[in-house]
Each structure stands twice: as C-alpha cells, then as structure tokens.
Amino acid sequence: MQPLVAGQLRTPGKELRSRYGAGFHPLIAALLVAMGYYVGGKIGFALTFQPHPVSTLWPPNSILLAALLLAPKRWWWFLLLAALPAHLMVELNSGVPLPMILCWFISNCCEALLGAFFLRRLTNGPIRFDSSRAVAVFMVAAVLAAFLSSFVDAGFVIFNRWGHGTYWQIWRMRFFSNVLAVLTLVPFIVMWISEGFPPLRRLSAARYIEAALLLVGLLVISILVLSGNVGPSPTPALLYTPLPLLLWAAVRFGPKGISTALLAVTFLSTWGAIHGLGPFVNRSPEENALSAQLFLILIALPLLTLGAVIDEQKRLREAAKKDEEHLELALNAALMGTWDWHIADNETKWSDETKRIFGFLPADSEVPPELFYGMLHEDDRQVVKDAIDHAIRERGPYAAEFRMRLPNGSVRWVRGQGKVLLDEMGRPVRMVGVNTDITTRKQAEEQLHQRNRQIRALAGRLISAQEVERRRISRELHDDLSQKVAALSVAISHLKRRIPDTEQQIITELDGLYCHTHDLTSHIRQLSHQLHPAALEHLGLEKALAAYTAQFQKEEDIETNFIARLNGRTIPFEISVCLYRITLEGLRNIAKHSYAKSASVLLEEDGQNLILEIADFGRGFDIEQARRGDGLGLISAEERVEILQGKFEIRSDAKGTKLIAKIPLG
Question: Order of strands across the sheet with 347-350?
Fold first, then answer.
C-alpha cells in the first residue's frame, strides 16, 4: 500500500526513474531484471490453462517493460540481454521446444520495446501515474503494445505448432493476458521502485493500522470469494465484494495503494480460476480465463484512473491552499481583505484582514450588511448604498471610498471594490470583492494638501515680503543714504565755493568730509551685509557668526555669548548660508520681541550632523500663533532646514526660547 501521511503529497512531475538510474549500477539492474523475469515466468506457467500455450496472466513482459521505463535508454539492450538467460531457464524447465522459446523471447521483447517506445513518445518525460492524463496515456500505450505484439506471438505459436487452438483464439488469450499483466504489474513496479518507501518515523500509528486492516480485509475477501469454493452456481453479486476495499485503497492510499491492491486481487482471482475455484468456473477453461481477464481489466481501468484523479485533486487542493495563503499574505501586506456577499440569503463572509480593518477579531461572527452600513460615517453611508445598488442593477463593478469611526474615536478610510456574480439566468446572486485600508494614503493626501496650502500661503507672503523689502531698501537709499550723499555733496560744494583761508580750516573741512564719507561707507557696507554676507564667503561660518554676534551685542546692547565646537571639517557653503540666515533672523527676533538681557549662540558638530542652537532668557511666545501670523521668519527657517534634509525645532515658554537646527553634513 502507499502509506501516505494525511496531507503529504508528492511533487508533481517528479522523475519516476530517478531512483533507479541514480541508485543502481547497470549490473545490479540487469540482475534484478533477470530474477524478476524468471520469477514472473514461473508464475505465468503456474497460471496457464492446460493444454493451452498461453497463460491467463503473463508477468515477464510487464516486468521487462517496467525495467525499460525505469532505466535510461542506453541500458535497454543490456537489460534485454540479461532477461535472455532467465527466459531460457524458465522455458526449458517447462518442456517448451527451443524454437518456440526463442520466438516467445522475441515477442516478449517486442511488447516491452513497443510499450516503452509509445510511452516515451506520448509523454516526453518521466512516466507518472498521479494524473488522469498520465494514466490515460499509459493505458493507450499498454493496450496498443499488447495489441500489436499479440499478432507476433500468436503467429509464432501457429508457426511452431505448439499448443491447441486457432490463431485468433491464441491471439485473444495472449492479448488479454498481456493487457491484464501490464495494467496490474507495471504501475506497481514503477511506483514502488521509483518512489520507494517513506521513512517510518514520518508515518503515524493510525496510518499503519489502516493499511493493515485494508490489506487483511482484501486478502480475506479475495481468498474466500475470488479463490475459494463458492459452489457450482456462485451469486454474481460476489464479484463486487472486493470493490469497497479497492475504492478504500484508491481514496486513502492513492495510485500506489490501488496498484498494490489490484495486483493482490488479480493474482488470487487468477489462481482460483486456474484451480477451479471462485466465481469463474462454470464454463470451459478458455471462457473461464476470458471472464477472469475481462473482469480484472474492467475494474483495473477505472480504479487506476480514480486513484490518479484523487491524487491529482489532492495536489490541486494543496496548490490552491498555498495560493490562497500567498494571496492572503499579499493582501495582508497591502492592508487588503476579501469579502463575499450572498445577495439572496443576505449572508456575508469576511476574511480576517477585512474584520481587522473594521475593528473585529478573526474569531468574531460574520457581520450582516445592516451592521456594516451602520458602521459607516453618516456622510458616506448613502454613497456606499447607492454604489452597491448601482452595481447590482447594472451588473457592473462596484467601487467606493468611505469612512468609519472606530471605538477609540479615530476615523479609518476604506476603499471597497467588487463585482457582481450572476447565475445561469443572468440574475445577481453574489458580490465578491476586496476592502483596502487607505487611511495612511488619505492622511498623506491631507498632509500634501495642507503642504500645498502652506506653500501657496508662503508664496503669497514671499511676494509681500519682497515688496516690503524693496520698500525698506528704497527708504534706506532715499531717506538715509540719499541724505548722506546729499550732505556730502553740499559740503564738497561749499568747500569748492569757499576755500578756507588757513590750513587749519582746510583740515577741519576735510575731516568733516572724511566723517561723512566714512559714515556713508559704513551704511553701504551694512546694507550690503544684510543683502549678502560677504564675510561668510571669505571667512567661513564660525568667524562670520562670531563677527556678527559681536556686532549684534554692540548695536542692541544684549549680552550675546557665541560658542563654537567644530572639528575643523569643511562645512558646505549652502549649509553655512542656511545657518547664518537662521542666526540673523533669530537674533533679530530676540532684539524685537523677547526683551531679553542675554542670549547665546552655539554651533557644534555631533557625529555627522551640524547643530545650531540660539537661546534667550526673555519672554516666550505662542509658536502656533506665530506660524499663522504674517511673518516669514519661522516658515523660512523651517523651509531652509528641510531643503537640506535637516530638522528644525522651536521650544518656547515663559522662561525663554530655544531654536535648534540640525543638518546632516554627509
């Protein structure tokens, strides 16, 4: 029997001759073929109706065919030669003339070669018995090989004048004998040799008990009914007594189990018929042999097919289960769950992921449509109902995005998609589909919309800031620089019209012009410094900040402490500009709004990051209110840092404010 553990399946397409080819040396294979051929010949002669020259069941041909199917083609000639001594031994001991012996060996080899050739041509791969197509191909090849070789065999018998009967009687007995042997022996030999025995530790005790009970029951019924003394007029129903056990073997033990059971039934029933026992004893020996052969062939064909179909269905179910598991993993990874709604019965079935999306546990009962609608956001409930009704009415697809409120008060966004399934009359009977948790996507979309609004607001503020800055520069140029230039011009013009009489007066006038010029130069330098920090470009960030903080302390009368802890690493210019601008904006805000008496600026390296901290000990402010205001300081600083893949943070309370900018250097 095929002792398969429940749920254990062979890999489809496994090469059945791999074990034979890899594990056997040609000499060992030849020895096994010779031994099997000899034993099969002895059994064949034992199952021969005398005085007919043809056995009811002739195993040697099938043993030789199985050997060729298991072996590489390059071994075939060697295996055929190995069978010749065994053939001679078994035939000479049976009193068969030498010419007939040689002719029979030729016909036996013809059947084996024809069967192997047809199977290799029709399968183009390993010989299998685990699918309906493979079994059908095997049956066609086996019957065709037996059909053709039986003509040769019957002709040899008539030519050598050996035995009794006409040509067609001999052909018929030879044909059915070969077909029966091929159907029962070849699958048994090929599967057990190629697949071997599974490790004992992989089999459960219940499996052993089941196989033993099946084997004992099959032997008992076969011995009592098919090879026992059932009387001169056996009941036809007795022929069906082994059928339940054969079905048991096919269903529970697959192709290997049914081939083993068929072989046992075949040998026992044939042996009984030869010895006048069993249900096949009421007519002449020829008719009894034909009845036994037809009975066994006709039950072997569907049962071998049944075993293959069941094995095939097991593999398909296992593959479908694996596909379902893979699909479920993919759906879970994508936050997607399936649903199935039987419209007529109003029953639903949700996958575990769908239940999770809607806040249920996998073990919870199914959710009816009414409860599903009740869970939806009141603004989306009718939209979903209309989408489902439209899909059912139009026999089209369904798609809707909706919200649902979870018990913790949060809102989850879900996208539902599905289609309508129709019956034979075109009426909607089911809807199937998927639900996708799109909360993260919706949040990202909302953040993107908010970001776009901020950008649009920032763009508007930038335009306004540009106008304000232009007006400021214009005022600086007109009200201050222009007046200073005008004053200088007036002084020069006055000196030109009235040159002083004494040298001391000239020096005094020139000193005045020098002061005007120096003041004008300082003002122009300050304005240029505000527009573009030239010191940053020439001196670097550390010295530029040190200079500016010193100037800030002098101008604003706020004690400002600057500390730099750098490792001498070159700082990229774009980072220097960013932190310099943030420092200017931060110190300017301290001077305008904080009323602080002291401030500090810290510039340090922390691994791969450059950190700027600006702190004051004055009056804090509302950060969110400042963000919503008209100023651009905070927003501009955040934008600058974000462009450089950094982080920007502001902490403010009644004790003061701290601004932190952290930008990666590498």
Answer: 347-350, 336-342, 428-437, 411-422, 398-405
C-alpha–C-alpha distance, residues 276 and 319, integer Å: 50
Name 436's Cβ contacts closer than 8 Å, sequence gap at least 6: 334, 335, 336, 414, 415, 416, 417
Nearby residues of 2 by Cβ (< 8 Å), 6 or more positions away: 191, 253, 254, 255, 256, 257, 260
DSSP-derived 3-state class of residue 280: coil
Q: Which H or E run contains 414?
A: strand 411-422
**Residue 114 has which token pair?**
């024809």
Q: Using an 8 Å Cβ cutoff, are 585 and 555 in contact? A: no
Q: Residue 469 in 3-state DSSP?
A: helix
The answer, yes or no, to whether residue 15 has pLDDT greater than 60, is: no
pLDDT in tens, 166-205: 788 788 888 888 898 899 999 998 888 887 766 555 667 8
Looking at domain 334-437, which of 3.30.450.20, 3.90.1150.10, 3.40.50.620, 3.40.50.300 is its CATH number? 3.30.450.20
Full DSSP string of 421-440: EE-TTS-EEEEEEEEEE-HH
| DSSP per residue, 617-663 | SS----HHHHHHSS--HHHHHHHHHHHTT-EEEEEEETTEEEEEEEE
- Torsion sign, CA atoms 307, 313, 315, 317: negative
- Interatomic CA distance for residues 347 and 368, integer angstroms: 6
Alpha-carbon distance of 173 to 52, in angstroms, equals: 9
Average pLDDT over residues 590-603: 87
**Nearest of 540, 651, 525, 531 to residue 586 by alpha carbon:** 651
DSSP, residue by residue, 558-590 = -EEEEEEE--SPPPPHHHHHHHHHHHHHHHHHI
Question: What single-letter DSSP state applies at residue 335?
Answer: T
The CATH number, out of the four listed (3.40.50.720, 3.30.565.10, 3.30.420.40, 3.40.50.300), of the domain defined by the range 532-666: 3.30.565.10
Structure tokens at 614: 């600006």
Quote the CA–CA distance of 254 and 307 in Å, as a whole number: 5
For the chain, domain boundaries: 18-316, 334-437, 440-531, 532-666
- The structure tokens 């097991």 sit at 314
3-class state of residue 488 by DSSP: helix
Q: Which helix (H) or strand (E) holds 263?
A: helix 243-274
Per residue in 201-232, pLDDT tens? 566 788 888 888 988 888 888 777 766 565 55
Kindly state the tokens that stand for 292. Answer: 């036994």
Give the pLDDT of residue 601. Answer: 92
What tokens appear for 543 in the block? 């010295």
Q: Find how far residue 3's CA is from the centre of its chain.
A: 31
Q: How many CA atoms lie less than 13 Å away from 353 in the CB half-sphere?
A: 20
What angle (nearest 5°) sits at the alpha carbon of residue 357, between those of residues 356 and 360? 40
Burial, 430: exposed, middle or buried (Cβ in 10 Å; 0-12, 13-18, 19+)? middle
> What DSSP string runs through 595-616?
--SEEEEEEEEETTEEEEEEEE
Quick one: the chain helix, strand, coil %, rounded to 5?
65, 15, 25
